[in-house]
Amino acid sequence: MEAILPQLLLAAWLLPLLSFVVILLAGARMGEGGRGAGYLATLAVGVSCVLSIIALVWWLGHHPLGGHGGHSEVLTGDWYTLAQFESLRFSVGYYVDSLTLGMFVMVTFIAFWIHVYSFGYMHEELHDVHDPFVTGADGRNLVRPGRFHRFYQYLSLFCFSMLGLVVANNLFMVFAFWELVGICSYFLIGFYVERPSATLASNKAFIVNRVGDFGMIIGLATFLFACGTLHYAMPGNASEHHPGLFSIVKDATNQLQDKNNAASSHEGTPTNVGHEKAGGSSGLETANKIERNRALTPVLLTLAGLALFCGCIGKSAQFPLHVWLPDAMEGPTPVSALIHAATMVAAGVYLVARIYPLLTADALLVVALVGTITLFLAATMAVVATDIKRVLAYSTISQLGYMMLGLGVGGWVAGLFHLFTHAFFKALLFLGSGSVIHACGTNEMPAMGGLWRKMPWTAATMLVGCLAISGAGIPLVIGLSGYYSKDAILAQTFLFHRMNPLFGWMFYVALGVAGVTAFYMFRLWFLVFWGKPRDEHVAHHAHESPRTMVAALVVLAVLSVVSGWTVPGTSWGITSLLEQSRVTPATETGTLQSAVALRIPDEHASHEHTIHAWVSGLAFLAALIGFGIAAVFYGIRWLDPEDVRQRFRGVWELLAQRWYIDQIYDAVFVRNALRLAAVAAWIDRNIIDWLADHAALSVRRLSQWDDWIDRIFVDGAVNALAAGIYDMGIRLRRWQAGKIRVYIMWIVIGIVALFIIGTIYLGIGANISRG
Amino acid sequence: MILAGILSPITVTHYLVVGIILFVCGIVCLVVKRNIIAMLIGVELILNGANINLVAFSSPQLFASGTAPLLLDGQVFALFVMILAAAEAAVALAIALQFYSRFGTVDVDQGGQLNG
Q1: What is the pLDDT of residues A299-351, one digit of tens each?
Q2: Contact, A153 vs A27, CB < 8 A?
């Protein structure tokens, strides 16, 4: 019976690949303008969504919710083994727990609605496209054939890659699909390939991700070296001989803790240590294990975990590699929604959650710090941005920072819970902004305003999205999805603050940014939908979006509201689903010799009622203040934002320039790289080319000499021989005249000559005369 | 002295002299004539000169005992040569006919087509 689950997931995973292959081969011929490709891709991802839901239901039937975590139920195995070198196996396999299934359902569900939405949004691509952003040499705008089918082709590949990453049971497979996700984002961000800005943005996304992936490769290599395997865990009885990463790390840290305990109580029980040693060294298997664990020192484990986290920094757009994500807005809006909500950036958070048992407390502290810095920086950038999609992009980075913070402070469930709820409301917000852009033809919020009359559905669903991301709700009673997930993270951070007072500021930053989040989201909403139209042309042009787009918005709005809730009368919900597969970090206390005593709090401790009441009250207050400020500036316009901007010109400039991070990268890395490239080019042109030219020249000269020698001596000898033979032939020819009488003459002369010679030398004549 | 030579009894040497005369006549005929038929006649003369020699060398006078068991070796060889000559003549005449039909002449010097 267990066998059905991997097969369901395999089908759900491979269907988008099938759709990709079919569209790749026959895309342009599938209906008018490639419309059939859209139907096929949507059908594929829809069916995989249904299969994922069936798998989840089946799983819940066998593993009922409600139990406490820590002993997570896992179904793992290999579908296909590429190669096996002793304990190291490269394979395509599955690692299924409730997190995997939850991600499957979430990814396919959101992807399905984005597919549906794209029918409306991308309809221009069905026929020739008139691109107003590209101007040819003749001053006219570019007209190109539509690429509807290609859009869906990449969407399918994207879904396939993301699902592969989620289902993977080893880091090798994760890395392969990690890169596939990267290349898909490259294709989709650069979908309008004729626009230079899109090409640059896709290059930037790809290159910045490479920087993170470099660290990830180092992490992979380290684990490979230290543990001899890249599988999370081995199925069934194979785990005895070849344990997976999780159990190896667990062994190592347990042993370490035993040693620490023994060292601290060394005086009391010296015999105990000796006993442990004697017991541990029996048998080759145990000896191997000890050997392996000796390589896995806490420092190495921390560094390896951080190296893997580098990949997550790149993929999930964390500081300092967040720079690619705002530029990625060059892609079509459904792509932004897909990247930001369900797939690419979620991959980084997912991987951190997946490798959680490999991360030490010290590594988690770094994760939390990176998250805090990111959530603060991105939120401040969002405050001054005027491009509607960029505001959402910064808010995505900021929310991802929250997730990393949540994971870093020990809130495994909290961080992932926010990943799920964020996926719904961020998809909603992006699709809503797509609807606005579709209607207005511009991304600039100052040119919009008063659109709620024209687009009531979009305005209402966007409002729901804004409320959800701000964490709106009645404290302790009920709230939107963001209310629950953000509170969970904040509560966990608060607990972390209590245990490690030195890092208390992280809680206050996160709390303050919750207010900033409310501010910039409502700033967006008020600027776009509230007040009077600021641009007559845009307002006149605006209209409600087609039904496919509105349908997706409504569905996602409903989920943004309810995804934080539990089923009435039970404790079933996303949190209890995640709770089932909750894991603990490799170490819960700091292992490195440092001045700071670090302790990661247990997640259950933050469920304490008083903490929750306090934190959610504070968070609500912060959000309310943020909303209030936004309303004062942009809602009732009691204060003029322009005025404030003039007053704080320096700060505004700093934020508008994104803390000059792009400029710093430009000055430090890009310029220097270009300079280095220029030097290399100069060396290439002037030294290497000179060498190559002169080498070629001397070879040419040498060959000229050689040619001369060849011509005079070698050819001369051969020609002379040939000429001599020719001459001889000419001379001998005279004797072969074909005159038969001459031949006979010679025969006669020859016979006479023979006769004379015979007479003289052999004395024949003498004998005859004697006879 | 010539008279003495003529009057002296006929010996092997006489036969050999006749053979040589015939042989030389044949050679001269071959070398001098351009007519293919005349050259064939010259070949026949050479063969006959050789035949006379064969018969002459089988003479009993050349044996120390003065007698020989049968002494027909030369004659037999001469008969073989005649048969061969007949066969050769048949072939050569066929070639001559072909030659004539191709070149319209029997002058062998005209057949220099394969001359390099």
Answers
A1: 888 888 889 898 889 888 888 888 888 888 888 888 888 887 777 888 889 99
A2: yes
Which positions ≥6 away from A199 have C-beta within 8 Å? A190, A193
Q: Is B38 on the interface with A (CB under 8 A)?
A: no
Please, which pLDDT band fits residue B93 given cuts at 50, 70 and 90?
Answer: very high
Q: Are A58 and A131 in contact (CB under 8 A)?
A: no
Among A737, A741, A745, beta carbon nearest to B115: A737
| Percent of all residues in chain A with a pLDDT value above 70, rounded to a whole number | 89
Chain B hits for A741, Cβ within 8 Å: 30-34, 108-109
Closest chain A residue to B33, measured at CA: A741
> Based on C-alpha coordinates, what's the Rg of chain A?
38
- Residue A771: list chain B partners with CB under 8 A: 62
What number of CA atoms fall less than 13 Å from residue A370's CA on the CB side?
Answer: 27
Residue A580: closest CA among A61, A246, A97:
A97
Tokens of A585: 């970090």
**Does A320 sit behind a cis peptide bond, omega within 30 degrees of 0 on the bond before it?**
yes
List Cβ neighbours of A175 (8 Å cut-off, separation of 6 or more).
A213, A216, A217, A220
Please state the pTM of the whole predicted model. 0.73
Of B33, B39, B114, the CB nearest to A738: B114
In tens, the pLDDT along A259-308 reads: 766 665 544 433 333 333 333 334 555 555 555 555 677 788 888 888 98
Name which of A58, A53, A42, A66 is nearest A103 in CA terms. A53
Residues whose CB falls within 8 Å of the CB of residue B115, separated by 6 or more in sequence, listed in order: A736, A737, A738
Nearest residue of chain A to residue B63 (CA atoms): A771
